[in-house]
UniProtKB/TrEMBL annotation:
InterPro entries: Cell_wall_metabolism_enzyme, Dup_hybrid_motif, M23ase_b-sheet_dom. It comes from the Bacteria. This is M23ase beta-sheet core domain-containing protein. CDD domains: M23_peptidase (cd12797). One of its GO terms (molecular function) is metalloendopeptidase activity. Residues 200-297 form the M23ase beta-sheet core domain. Pfam families: Peptidase_M23. PANTHER family: MUREIN HYDROLASE ACTIVATOR ENVC (PTHR21666:SF270), PEPTIDASE-RELATED (PTHR21666). It comes from Candidatus Yanofskybacteria bacterium RIFCSPHIGHO2_01_FULL_44_22.
Length: 309
């Protein structure tokens, strides 16, 4: 037993030396631009490389996945609404060096990394009197629609940046600061005292009149444009590159098609009250995901625009 322990000690003493030169050669650094405020579930983090010319060969590894940089050396990282609170380490990887990547991920002593803490989100509860109770047939339909969403998100493999300039409001007649929120991001809708009789809102509901033009928040490609989903009604998903998706639901009319390239501010639909979810009138359900991380969509726009030219 003592011999085995001694052997392991030698192995772990030698391993750093084997990889040390590769780790020390990494001269490109990075910083978290918006770490001056507490990071909560649902927030967006902005990482920036010290040398933008290394953007194509670098990634940040955190929350179990790689995030990629745009041509300016900026990466958008989502602390998902369901990301467990706690301390995490963000590691800068050189994608051209397998040994360096392996060294960073498993030993991370000399590597280029930053520690950060994700705090619990300050999400409120709201009693919800009317709950949509689907029939068995509707439950099956909902499962199929959920699988369609997953397939659409999984179909995008490109980390290419499609963003052009700053993000805009999803409603053509309102700027970000004047949007009327009827149901905020992250709120818990409580239907009864039963633990499983509640759900968390994974987007934001914006009050609209009927048939108000809904626009793409930035340039990208339409990856979903479907009518008559059970809960979302008529729904659109736009991919903006770098793992960023925007979703627009309950539309009265879709004015785009899957595969179409759209520009920031381009009309893609009209607001409405479609879908079998309890609808209180025309509104837009607006959501943003960064890869599979569900983030606060309005806070995402506000944060991203501070660092976009």
């Amino acid at each position: 037993m003592k011999t085995e322990i001694a052997v392991l000690a030698v192995v772990f003493a030698i391993l750093p030396a084997l990889f040390l030169s590769g780790a020390e050669e990494t001269k490109v650094g990075f910083e978290i631009l918006n770490d001056d405020a507490p990071i909560e579930q649902g927030d967006t983090l902005i990482f920036k490389l010290s040398d933008a010319s290394s953007a194509k060969k670098s990634s940040v590894f955190i929350f179990g996945k790689h995030y990629y940089f745009n041509e300016k050396g900026v990466a958008f990282i989502g602390a998902s609404i369901v990301q467990p609170s706690g301390e995490y380490t963000a590691v800068l990887l050189d994608l051209t060096s397998e040994s360096e990547s392996w060294w960073f991920q498993f030993f991370c002593r000399c590597c280029n990394c930053r520690k950060l803490e994700v705090l619990p989100g300050q999400f409120k509860n709201r009693p919800a009197a009317n709950k949509f109770n689907p029939t068995e047939k509707q439950k099956d339909r909902r499962i199929r629609e959920g699988e369609m969403f997953q397939a659409v998100y999984a179909s995008v493999s490109s980390a290419e940046n499609l963003i052009s300039g700053k993000f805009v409001s999803p409603l053509s007649n309102k700027n970000i600061g004047s949007l009327a929120i009827t149901d905020p991001f992250g709120i818990w809708r409580i239907y009864s005292r039963a633990k499983n009789d509640q759900e968390q809102h994974r987007g934001v509901d914006l009050r609209t009149g009927k048939n108000v033009p809904v626009v793409s928040i930035n340039s990208g490609v339409v990856i979903m444009a479907e009518n008559d989903f059970l809960r979302e009604g008529n729904v659109i998903v736009v991919y903006h590159g770098l793992g960023i998706f925007s979703l627009y639901a309950h539309l009265s009319e879709i004015k785009t098609a899957k595969g179409e390239k759209v520009a920031a501010g381009q009309v893609i639909g009209l607001s409405g009250a479609t879908g079998n979810e309890t609808i209180t009138g025309p509104h837009l359900h607006f959501a943003v995901k960064i890869y599979d991380a569900v983030v606060n969509p309005l806070k995402f726009i506000e944060t991203a625009n501070k660092y976009l030219e």
